[in-house]
Amino acid sequence: MSTPILEARGLVKTFGHVVGLAGVDLELHAGEVLAIIGDNGAGKSTLIKCLSGAYTPDAGQILVEGKPVEFHRPDDARKAGIETVYQTLAVSPALDIASNLFLGREQRLPGVRGSVFRMLDKKGMRDRAKQQVEDLGISTLQSMTQAVENLSGGQRQAVAVARAAAFGSKVVILDEPTAALGVRESAQVLQLVRDLRDQGMPVILISHDMPQVFEVADRIQIQRLGRRAAVITPKTHTPQEAVAIMTGAMVVT
């Protein structure tokens, strides 16, 4: 098998006497959706925060395309091509769609206007935002000048995913992307996940929704008590078996 795009080896993270991760491995390959599931306290969030630079692991190794990396802050992960969309979204409601896509990465006009007067290239950012949205096949976002506060929950999630896809050159991590959405909007977000995969972008999906996980995931990593209990696929196991592994009622050897 080819070298994983993103790999974790023996990650350990403790918080005092509480063990968040107890030697967790992970492999993410190009063009796949890897779902991570587990009960509360299984280590899902801790693992993702280590991979996205929010936490620094106490031990273990993270590799990007086979090369060891160290993330001490989220910017380190972003520079390595890893973008994360958290459940809280972190979009700015008062700004329009284009401004949200380039939030923290604003582009300035060329020449003196940009370098001296620090004027933003608003038209250029709108055009590039529109192209990114179209490339992802997002049909629910029409005008890039529309304020995010006027969008539905699914549309806001689409903005966050589009931003991650625009700047995540290697990996996109989605943390519970459908948690607060209805059936129709959840279906739209899941289609975005498929579109990212079809474009060759590997996706890590954290979700508690078992039917959705089995609908879009190529592989499923099951976390239990801070460890990787198993890696299964929708073809080899059922949702009921996945739950049994999560709870310890079934052990995969």
TrEMBL record:
Keyword ATP-binding: yes
SUPFAM superfamilies membership: P-loop containing nucleoside triphosphate hydrolases
Keywords: ATP-binding, Nucleotide-binding
Any GO MF annotation of the entry: ATP binding
Lineage of origin: Bacteria, Bacillati, Actinomycetota, Actinomycetes, Propionibacteriales
Domain of life: Bacteria
Protein's UniProt name: Sugar ABC transporter ATP-binding protein
Annotated ABC transporter domain residues: 6-250
